[in-house]
Structures are given as C-alpha cells and as structure tokens.
Amino acid sequence: DKILVEVRDLKMHFPIHAGVLKKRVGEVKAVDGIGFDIYEGETLGLVGESGCGKSTAGRAILRLYDITEGSIKIDGHEIGATPQPELRKMRPTMQMVFQDPQASLNPRMSVAAIIGEPLDEHTKLGKAEKREKVLSLMDAVGLNRDFANRYPHEFSGGQRQRIGIARALALNPKFIVCDEPIAALDVSIQAQVVNLLEDLQEEFGLTYLFISHDLSMVRHIADRVAVMYLGRIVELASRETLFADPKHPYTQALLSAVPEPDPWLEEKVERILLEGDVPSPSNPPKGCNFCTRCPQVMEICREIDPLGQEIAPGHQVACHLYKDTEESAA
Ligand code: SF4
Ligand code: MG
C-alpha cells in the first residue's frame, strides 16, 4: 500500500510566558514526538481524552502551525520546515474539517461564496465554471442547490457541517484531517455526517486522519487506530487488533470505559478506573508519561521513558510491560 502521509518525531511545544516582562518560564509539550504513516485511501483514527494533544497534532500535520521539530511528508513532499508562503502550493492537497461548523464558517458569506473561496484563492476558474463547481460540491455533500445564496445561520448544525465538508473538498484534496467532525452535532444526525464522510472517501479516494474522543465512532470508521496520551502515541494497531486485544494499560482503561451497548464490551470483565488527573503537558512525569495513573506501574516506569516498539506486525506499543530486550531501553 502506498504511504500518503508520513509523520516522524513531530513535536509541537508552546512557550509559556509569565509576569509583566512576559518572560519565558516553560513550555507546554502538546505534541511531544509522535510518528506514524497513513496509507492512501485509509482512515487512521487518532483517539485520546481531551487535552491529550490530538487536535494540535492534526493541525501541526497540516502545518497550520510552525512546528517545533519533526518531519511531515505528504504525498512525497517534505513540509515540516516549509515556510508558510510556499506551503500555499500544498494547501489544495491537504484540508481540514473542523469540529465546530458554526465557528469555522463566515456568517457574512453566502454558502456559494464560502464553498467557492478556496477556488478563488487557488484556481483561475471563470464565473460560470466556478458556479458549476460549487453546485456540484453541494450535490456531493447532499445540500440543496437552491440554497446556494443563503447564509450559514439559515442552516441546521448538520447542514453547516456539510458546507464545511464541501469547502474542504473544493480543491480535490487527497488528505483530510477531520477534527471531531461530529462532536458538536445532535446525536440524531451524527451518523448521517459520518456516513457522508465515508461515501465521499470512496467516491473521491480520500485519505483521512479522523480525530475523536469517541471510541465507538472510531471503531466504526477507522481502519487503524492510534491512541494518544499526554502528547505521545502509546499504541497503534489495526482497528480489529486494538479493540480485541489492547496492550497498553491506557488503551485498556479507555476501552473499558466505553458505555454500552457495544457488543464487544460484553466480553470485558470489569471497568478499569484510572486514578488522578492527566498531568500537565508543561510538566510531564519522569519516565513513562502514564506512570502517575497506570494500574500496572513498575519501578522502571518512573525512571525510563518506554520507546514505541512493534510487538506484532503493525501493532506498536510504548510500554515497559512488553519490553523483551535490554537494548530497547538504550
Ligand atoms: Fe504503565 Fe509502566 Fe507501561 Fe507506563 S510503561 S504504561 S507506567 S506499565
Ligand atoms: Mg481537541
């Protein structure tokens, strides 16, 4: 399978300033050295509790930020250090669907203008061609063409998310980061939007990074799943493996907390309740990031940061429980 997105050692640290002189007193390690591949046409789910760094990771991969460190290759192009003006050329390839369609759509622009904006910026389409393209995008996402001249407030939340999706599709992207695309929507319409994203993926050959805190959702849509905790990826596996045989204690706890009714949950014996809060990403614990809350913590965990290792083909875990050689600590 072709790798479309390749992320290596990605770090996104934000400085913390304090006092009247705004002295730099530390940094928030929102994303602290993550890496994975995303294959063309697949959906990689990125899950974790709020504040784990998954949204920041998604934005960093699209270079909505200047990243602290690391390599990002999209369709063979290294963009980790590309200056913002040059990144413009890559924008059509990679797009984002945001969590809150309300906040991401300009209330003073008509639907046609919103969907057409990327076309104005990146193409030289004539007026009629542009209109036709906008209308065909509205068809693709299931919006009535007759509403092209209406404004965002005249639509429901689900329809507004369709507008956001149409805009993301305008430039025929290959890769789309979906950041909690249904979290702000009514439960009754969440499934419709997810089904739409799946249909569009098939129709246009899209590759998704699907960010969500909702494991049932990810289990439905993702081919593979990466689990994030405190700026790191602690486990990555195929959907089947991750849900049937989670290895990292954090993944096990997350899965045990998924509310029923999910048929696979019936096999689970008990809930794993985690003690304490997620530590601050400005002051992560020494050793394993999860050692302050891990039910299986060992002495070594408080000293040495576990490296990610492949414990079976395609199944990566960063945890000392699965370390089989001395060298991997080096
Ligand atoms: Fe728990 Fe230790 Fe594994 Fe970290 S390395 S998840 S503390 S067992
Ligand atoms: Mg978030």
Task: Describe the 3D structure.
- This is ABC transporter ATP-binding protein.
- Residues 16-255 form the ABC transporter domain.
- InterPro entries: AAA+_ATPase, ABC_transp_ATP-bind, ABC_transporter-like_ATP-bd, ABC_transporter-like_CS, Oligopep_ABC_C, P-loop_NTPase.
- This protein is an alpha/beta fold and 330 residues long.
- Helix content is 28%, strand content 25%.
- A hairpin with a 2-residue loop joins strand 4 and strand 5 (77-78).
- Helix 4 (111-122) packs parallel to helix 6 (157-169), helix 5 packs across helix 6 (157-169) and helix 6 packs parallel to helix 7 (187-204).
- Magnesium ion is lined by residues 50, 55.
Keywords for this structure?
alpha/beta; 4-stranded antiparallel beta sheet; binds iron/sulfur cluster; 28% helix; 8-stranded mixed beta sheet; disordered C terminus; Rossmann fold; binds magnesium ion; 330 residues; 12 strands; globular
